[in-house]
Amino acid sequence: EGAELATGGSRRGIVVSTLAEARFFAAGGFDDILYAFPVPRWRLAECSALAQRLQRFQVLLDSPQGLEMLLQNPLPAGKRWLVWLKLDCGNARAGIRPTDPEALSLARAIAQGSPELVTLVGVYAHCGNTYGCRDIAAIQAIARDTTAAVLEFVTA
Prior knowledge:
Elements: H1 2-6, E1 12-16, H2 19-27, E2 32-38, H3 44-53, E3 56-61, H4 64-72, E4 81-87, H5 101-112, E5 118-125, H6 136-155
Parallel strand pairs: 1-2, 2-3, 3-4, 4-5
């Protein structure tokens, strides 16, 4: 019910952190879901099944190896992997640092490689480094820094 309220009844544009959540929302009629964790090889079959079932099942990538894995495992029937490049803007949990020289190369490889198989949707950053903040000013500072890092990366 909360997700329906949060999406204004559209049942689109929801972000999940586990595939169990993705399956739950898919069973509830959501057809536009982002799995907000870089796809591990051992979860590829589950991600593929969701991508084939839903109108838009989107995943994160943060490495050339992840891109190669998706390219070597294309979706059938005209479907393609919808990918967000996961940037690590200080959370240090997952993602590639936007200042890492490999980050821009990876973004270009996703965007220009094989768009009929893997399509770059955008970039994604998670401010999990706010969890330890003790006040609003600290949270706002992290949000500003993350926004600046993402905008600088996208501009490049």
